[in-house]
Amino acid sequence: xxxxxxxxxxxxxxxxxxxxxxxxxxxxxxxxxxxxxxxxxxxxxxxxxxxxxxxxxxxxxxxxxxxxxxxxxxxxxxxxxxxxxxxxxxxxxxxxxxxxxxxxxxxxxxxxxxxxxxxxxxxxxxxxxxxxxxxxxxxxxxxxxxxxxxxxxxxxxxxxxxxxxxxxxxxxxxxxxxx
Length: 179
Ligand code: IMP
Ligand code: MG
Known about the structure:
Blueprint: E1 6-11, H1 13-29, E2 35-41, H2 45-55, E3 63-69, E4 84-86, E5 96-104, H3 108-119, E6 124-132, E7 145-149, E8 155-156, E9 172-175
Parallel strand pairs: 2-3, 2-5, 5-6, 6-7
Antiparallel strand pairs: 1-9, 3-4, 8-9
Bound molecules: inosinic acid and magnesium ion (MG).
């Protein structure tokens, strides 16, 4: 069994749940009946599931799809080169897309994906992230819905990983890489 490198809890599960309901209340005000929620895998899967459950309170019935993009590998620094590992299945022409990711860091991932879906004919593309690290933006990009802005720590849990580990944590924790 590997030693857990996770250190302090940054955002606990109660705070995450509360913030998700607030985000969904905001999302619901500009939602249309041609909404497709697209999660960027793997990091977004837990966040997206909780967003979906919360949307139920507003009687919104979105379609859902997933896009798998190339990831960091085992590094904790961002890569500019993004490749599609597994594409969406739905026809998005004329649809209003809500793109969901776990964290907005350099901005390359969401910038690339938003442009891709607009080019493919989506009517609109909005973006929603649980976390953002403002200090690390390499391209100009702002998400439409942001759960929490955090300082420049590498974090794991609630879907976020380090080397594909720790996604199962119910909270967001800082990773202690020096252990
Ligand atoms: P960006 O393209 O640099 O904005 O990177 C976004 C992607 O980097 C996210 O989808 C995450 O998978 C990953 N990422 C960035 N920061 C962290 C972190 O602190 N922990 C885990 N994954 C991260
Ligand atoms: Mg990711």
